[in-house]
Structure formats: C-alpha cells, structure tokens
Design goal:
The chain has about 425 residues and is mainly β. It is built from no helices and 30 strands. The two termini are about 15 Å apart.
Length: about 425
Amino acid sequence: MNRFIAIFVAPLAAFGSFSYASAQEVTYDLLSMGPGNANALFYSFSEGVVGEAPLDAWEVSFDVRSMGSTARINGALGLTLYPYDEVEGWDSVTLDSWDMGEAYLNDPSDWGLGAFGQGGDGLFDLGWGNYDLVTHIVTADSMYLMQMGDGTWKKVALLGLQGGTYTFRHANLDGSNDITLEIDKDDHEGKLQAYYNLTTNEMVDFEPSAPWDMVFTKYIEYVVLPGFGEQAYPVTGCMTHPNVGVLQRDGLTNPAVDGTFTTEEMSFASNEVGHDWKTWTGVEYVIASDRCYFVQSQTGDVWRLFFTGYGGSATGDIELGKILESGANVSEEIGMVQRLEVFPNPVEAHGTVTLRGDLPILDIQCWNMAGQRVHPHVQGLRSPLATMSGLDSGLYVAQVLTSGGSSRIRILVQ
C-alpha cells in the first residue's frame, strides 16, 4: 500500500546546511535495565523500548548484514578472546607454555569490528580468515581460546563464510562438547547480529525484529583509570545502530533548548553517545547536565536527546528527555502556503517517488545529507504531478520549484 504524506509548504530562499532551534515539548522516558543492569534495552525514538533481553543470554554474535564478516564476544560477561594458532592446531591445544599475548576485544566504535576481526589488515585479511576476491569466500586461518567469565576456557574458530552462511566451531579444551554449526544470514533478515549461547548450543532471539536506534547495554570501553592510564573496562551505556548519526553538544545552559546541529557534523561511531553522560563521584552518579545529543534516527528524523537521571546498578533506571527537532517529512518554509504530497515516503532504494502539488512543478533539485547535489531521474515536469527515481539509500532534501515559489521536502530512501 502506498503511503501518502501531505505536506503544506511555502517558498524557500536557498538551500543550505540544516540548523534548527527546538520548539517542541519534551517527552521524558523512564527505562529500566533492572537491578544489576541485567537486561539490554533496544530503543526507538518514535516507539520507545521495542525489545528487552537478558545480557547473559549469549556469548558470541555474528554480523548478519549483507557485507558483514565478523563475530563479536559478550564483554558484559567478562569474556576475553586470545589468538592461539592456525586453525590446523585445533586438536593440539594446551595452556602449558602458551604465550597468552594480548586479548582481542570488540571495537566499541564499530559494530563491524568484532573481536574475531582484530589482527587483520583492513583489506582481505579479516583477522579470523582471508577473503578470496574471485570466489567471495572467506576461509579461516586462525583459531582462538576464549576465557569465560568463570575462568574456564573454550577453543573457538570461525571456519568460513560462504554464500551468506558462517561456519562456526567451539569445544572444551579437552575436545569434549565439540560443536560445528552454520549461521545463515537469511534466517536473521532485518537484524544487525545473530546471537549464540555456547553453553546451551542454541541461537538466541536477542535482538528484536522491530527497528531500533539505540541499545542500552554493558560493553567494554577504553577508559582512563586513575593510576593505571587507559584500560579496557566494563561500562554501562548506549550503543547506536550503525545507520544512526549522532552529534554531541556540550557547554549548554539548557540542553532542552540550547544548541543547533548540522547533519554533516554527525558521527556514526556506535559509542558516540556511549557511557560518559554520567560520572561516578564515589558516592553517586552525576549526569552531564550541560550536554545534549542530536540523533538522526533510522527513519531520518532528528531528535534532541539529553539524560536526566541514572539509578546505577541498584535499579538500572535511566531517565532521558527527547524532542523531535526535525522530521523526515517536515519542511521548514515561509511565505505562501501550498500543498505538496510525496508518496511513498520512505521509498525503497532506486524506487520511484511521486510528488503532487497544487501548482505545476517546474523543477526538482536534490541534495544528500553531505550537502552534495545528486541527480535523480526526474519526469513529469510542467504538471502538478512529477516523479523522481534512481536514488541510493539515504536521506535527501529535494527543492521543488513551482509557479508559486520554491519548497523543500525530505525524502528517506531505504
């Protein structure tokens, strides 16, 4: 079914960078990870909490995006991963005289750089295996030892990735409970990760199917500890979806009002919101009261986010405020009002968007969020009905010229 978006717009002077002042009421959300921060909370700005799952439900997760090629470990459980040998050394594992070396951890800033992906060259050596340019198959060349939270050890290996299917093997050091399984990306369509429990030998339905923008969770971050310098340390915080952009603003008198944003400044690091919106004083947690984040959600809306409370591990309660600063289907125009319908919006990549106005559409110009002019296929000019197509995934601003003036709309291409 086509989704019709009716927008009342008016003449616009010239297209430029986006900068908005808040004029909306604050919505406050109270979330709870539970005592001990035991549960992960998947959060959507438009829908609230869309998923909740116990953090101890999994040990290894696999990147199931179309170009995903790594696996992560659950740092919340105190797991650590160590390179051991080539995969051919599977049957001769021993801790005797083993030079442990440095642990491999997930990169907290990038979902695509899991612990199994460390040690690669950033090109065709993926850390755990090598990518063949001809066959598009990744073949393992490494195996690992994983220390569990209780101090016991397992040997693990990603054996390969072919046709969207991972092959993964794990066993106890003595060779018992030797399991080889396949993880098909198609079985986890629309999700970021597929999660696995090494104890039960089962996949875990951890991530919700509903779209989410942030997950409140525990993870390993690199923090400066007094007297020890920068160390890998378990923190409780927020990780954003890889399709979500974030801009942090500090030094604000009122984080619900002050500060502006441009989408060009936004970061897509998964730990851009992170954990440091709160600070432990030794007695209590203090919130960064002069800070807000501008977050562009998966729908293309831009929200102002600021935190107002954190109960610590005693309750796991998190209180935040949010304001819709800019909607994907909202235009900021002045002057004579005219009607412009856009459908469907969102639209699939390279699909066709129809624009219908009260007046003949004379011209359509389009920019991406980097401020670059793009050139979609446009048909039907000189009539109130026109179409544009051929856009890649992303958020765009289209400037539409009619006999009544120039108008601006946002179009989300998924």
